[in-house]
């Protein structure tokens, strides 16, 4: 199953992908407007033959993530599973620092957050 992980933000969207048991980051999407973001995500879905989306939902949702996830599900006709993304950015930053990376960009944190979100989902599925 090819799965896309998304860490939604108003300025950037972290993206990750998995074809099996390991998630890896894809380039972060810069948010210009909803239409262009949906086009970029649709292209990624088509290119990677994605069958499911794991979508990070902040709590509380002050940025319209739930509404965007709903639109994404309607546009792509794929299952969009909402997952609590609380502390993924903090954990991602910690992991990037531990990796020895000297200069950490916000886009790196977003991509790492999406990857952690998707990897947690994959790990849970592999325990079943």
UniProtKB/TrEMBL annotation:
Biological process according to GO: rRNA 5'-end processing
Family of the protein in this entry: Belongs to the YqgF HJR family.
Localisation per UniProt entry: Cytoplasm
Enzyme Commission (EC) number: 3.1.-.-
Pfam families named among the record's database cross-references: RuvX
GO molecular function per UniProt: hydrolase activity, acting on ester bonds; nuclease activity
Protein name: Putative pre-16S rRNA nuclease
A GO term from the CC aspect: cytosol
InterPro entries tied to this protein: RNaseH-like_sf, YqgF, YqgF/RNaseH-like_dom, YqgF/RNaseH-like_dom_sf
Membrane in keyword set: no
Record's function text: Could be a nuclease involved in processing of the 5'-end of pre-16S rRNA.
Keyword check for Nuclease: yes
EC supergroup of this enzyme: hydrolase
Keywords from the named record: Cytoplasm, Hydrolase, Nuclease, Ribosome biogenesis
SUPFAM superfamilies: Ribonuclease H-like
